[in-house]
Amino acid sequence: MPFIEFHKRVLSVKTEYDAHIEAAILALLIARQQIADEIKNYPTPVAGCDVQYNGLLSKRAQVTRALDAMNSEVFVPTPRTLVAGGGAENR
């Protein structure tokens, strides 16, 4: 998510928990950039068994999954809509 879009979202924050969620997203974005910088500047050659390098790759994947989860839509089933994409029940 670009930082400009993030700042627009921060301006529209309506509740305290929204502010905390946005702060968590920003922290994850910063962590992802720091990990990317560390991977980019990692000394070569990199052996496939380099534990620290593989740990960085693992952390990068973990942060990426967390960001994806934070930015994805979540379906909450209700009695009127039991499945994602399902229409409202007619009575």
Kindly summarize this structure in a few lines.
The chain is mainly α and 91 residues long. It has helices spanning 3-11, 16-40, 51-71.
Question: Which class best fits the helix and strand makeup?
Answer: mainly alpha
Order of helices and strands: HHH
- Major pleated sheet: none
The low-pLDDT segments are none
Strand content: under 5%
Mean pLDDT, nearest integer?
83
How would you describe the shape? elongated
State the helical fraction. Answer: 55-70%
Total domain modules: 1
Span of the ends, CA to CA: 41 Å
Structure overview:
The protein has one domain (3-67). The protein has helices at residues 3-11, 16-40, 51-71. It has three helices and no strands. The protein is elongated and about 60 Å long. It is mostly helical and 91 residues long.
Descriptive tags:
mainly alpha; 3 helices
Layout of helices and strands, plus pairs?
Elements: H1 3-11, H2 16-40, H3 51-71
